[in-house]
Amino acid sequence: MRFEFFVAARYLRAKRRQAVVGVITAISVAGVAVGVASLILALAITNGMRRDLQERLLSSTAHVDLMRVQNDGIRDWRTLTASLRKLPHVTAAAPGLYEPVLVSRGALSGGAMLKGVIPAEERTVSDLLSNMTAGSTAPLLQTESGSDATGEATPPIVLGYDLADTLDAKVGATVMVISPQGELTPYGLVPKYQRFRLVGIFHSGFYQYDSSFGFVRLKDAQTLFGEPDLVSIISFKVDDLYHADRIGKEIEEAAGPGFMTTNWMEQNRELFRALKLEQIVTFIVIGLIVCVAALNILIALTMMVMEKTKDIAVLMSFGAEPGQIRRIFLLQGFLISVIGTALGLVLGYALAWAGAHYRFPLSAQVYSIDYLPFAPRLIDGVIVAVVSLGVSLLATVYPSSSAARVLPAEALRYE
Question: What is the pLDDT of residues 123-158, one digit of tens each?
Fold first, then answer.
């Protein structure tokens, strides 16, 4: 292949009278490079979105949740939690009481999901209470016997960063929590309300939680919701999060009839399915850039064959075989593809690294996270390189076959 490679490399360096061919060749290299770099960046962004969303979801929520089928609450939750915590593959368990509420401060208000927790146990299944940006969770760690046992006029509450910003509430402010689980009076259903003192603000970076979650002590939540000694859910962390469905079935069987479990994969299946579909569509759409670059390679080689018809005839008259002529132009297209792919990989990974280092801000309300994540993977570079080289080589088949069919006698008849 030394002869074919030498001639192919020589043909890439066009002379002045072949400047048009040289320009098209340069455009072909640039097109391949841009296509490859775009694919690397797009895949890095989709991988980064998937990675960051999964990490934040798993740090903010439990792997498995146990609840009653009738959704009427779990009454023997202390005994049940203690027994299920001993199951194989279960690393932590924590009870909780969820209810939707309205949180207000003056004229400002916002909907929230309020969760009553035992803080020491909640920290083992969720990191939300560990991501404090203001205040402290220390008041939540006090006795669960009620606000009067601590000598506080109002019980403590911890809110998400965006929810606190909506209420314009700072640490130490008093907020009103209104529960739809009201009391029936002669005047109709009257919602229950309770004043809470804001003692801490958490910031997970995941907008859905930061804008709509709040934590209070379990006893305070039971008092507000009128559910004495009752929890709505028991959350679990497991040792293998990708087998949370199987472990959830084991927890469900151990809990007995009347219980059901959900896991993080079921709760977020549509989200990750959409991200996977987005990754496939992005690969196809941006891959069209590589196809356009391959068409440029086809045009450049076709013009090269037309320009070099006399040279091809001379080579064949000196004994070059049609297979060697074919390989010359195949190698020429391959060289264009290799140079463009290499430049594209370098450019793509460099831009992905820069994007990961200098974070590009996003609207958390739209994208759930507040910056554009980049997670370039080596395997993506391999796949993109193989696709780029394959498509480019496919584009060289026609011009190289045309070059091999040149007849020396006809090409040189009028020379």
Answer: 889 888 888 888 888 888 765 444 443 445 689 999
Tokens of 148: 């009067």
> Taking the CA of residue 195 as centre, how many other CA atoms within 13 Å lie in the half-sphere pointing to its CB?
9
Q: What is the pLDDT of residue 92?
A: 92
In 3D space, the residue among 127, 115, 128, 121 whose CA is nearest the CA of residue 93 turns out to be 121
Distance between CA atoms of 40 and 283, rounded to whole angstroms?
A: 9
Question: Which pLDDT band, with edges at 50, 70 and 90, does 237 fall under?
Answer: very high
Could you tell me if 187 and 158 are in contact, meaning their C-beta atoms sit under 8 angstroms apart? Answer: no
CA–CA separation, 117 vs 122, rounded Å? Answer: 6
d(C-alpha 161, C-alpha 159), whole Å: 7
Give the model's pLDDT for residue 184: 61
Cα torsion for 140, 143, 146, 150, to the nearest 10°?
-90
pLDDT at 204 over 80: yes
d(CA 246, CA 236): 13
Name beta bridge partners: 158: 200, 215
DSSP string, 354-400: HHHHSPEE--HHHHSSSEE-----HHHHHHHHHHHHHHHHHHTHHHH
Structure tokens that stand for 265 in this block: 């994969």
List CB contacts of 116: < 8 A, sequence separation 6 or more: 96, 97, 215, 216, 217, 218, 219, 220, 221, 222, 225, 231
Specify the pTM.
0.70
Q: Using CA atoms, how far apart are residues 316 and 324, in angstroms rounded to an integer?
A: 9
404-410 own/partner pairs: CB under 8 Å, 24+ apart: 404/322, 404/323, 404/325, 404/326, 405/322, 406/305, 406/309, 406/312, 406/313, 406/316, 406/325, 407/313, 408/313, 408/314, 408/316, 408/317
Q: Tens digits of per-residue pLDDT, 255-314?
A: 888 899 998 888 888 877 887 887 788 788 877 877 887 888 888 778 777 777 777 787
Q: Is the pLDDT of residue 397 over 80?
A: yes
Instruction: Give pairs for 251-260: CB < 8 Å, separation 24+.
Output: 251/64, 251/66, 251/84, 251/87, 251/90, 252/66, 254/83, 254/84, 254/87, 255/66, 255/80, 255/84, 258/68, 258/69, 258/70, 259/66, 259/67, 259/68, 259/69, 260/66, 260/67, 260/68, 260/69
Q: How far apart are CA 137 and CA 95, in angstroms?
A: 18
Closest by alpha carbon to 111, among 23, 26, 196, 214?
214
